[in-house]
Amino acid sequence: MWSKIKKFTISMSIQLTIFYIGILFCILFIMSFFTVWGIQYIMFMQAENDIISSANNITSYLAAGHPLDQQLLSENFLASDVILRIYVNKVT
What we know:
Keywords: Membrane, Transmembrane, Transmembrane helix. By secondary structure, this protein is mainly alpha-helical.
């Protein structure tokens, strides 16, 4: 039985087709990986820039002597999807 399996040959066109399928799969996988990585990198960089600019806006607003009130929220200092939390440090 092994001799029958050993004699089974695949034609050159089928071998080339399988080889091309492998190459295309590798290219598709690599391109998908870099696309996902690029989108993640861009989103993280945008989020970091939004947080930094929002923190700078709030810091400059408070450094100018303005109080913490509702005007702070209405002035639109924060970028979209950035949440402001104010912690009061009570020293005893």
